[in-house]
Here is the input.
Amino acid sequence: MSFDAITSIAQAEDAAKVAVQYARAQAKQMLADADAAGKASVAAAVDRAEKELVALGQKADEKSVADAKQVRAELDKKKAALRAEAGAKLEAAATLVAERIVNG
Here is the structure.
């Protein structure tokens, strides 16, 4: 083999080594970029989920308050009806007691 052929082969091997090193560096950078993008995507998803959770919590609290007010109003109506019924029965009972006392 001639010296030029050996030199040419050595240069080709050196160029191949440089190309492999460059490809490895690019692959490392691509992995790092993908990792950073994935972490950013997960962080954004967590942030959205936390905001949605807060909003759902607020809606649940508002609904609980509204439901409690509705139940309170219904109970107040029932209480008023029971008081009116009890008042009527009390009046009837008082009349009955008075008649028994008078009529002996």
Q: What stands out?
A: The helical segments are 3-103. The chain has one helix and no strands.
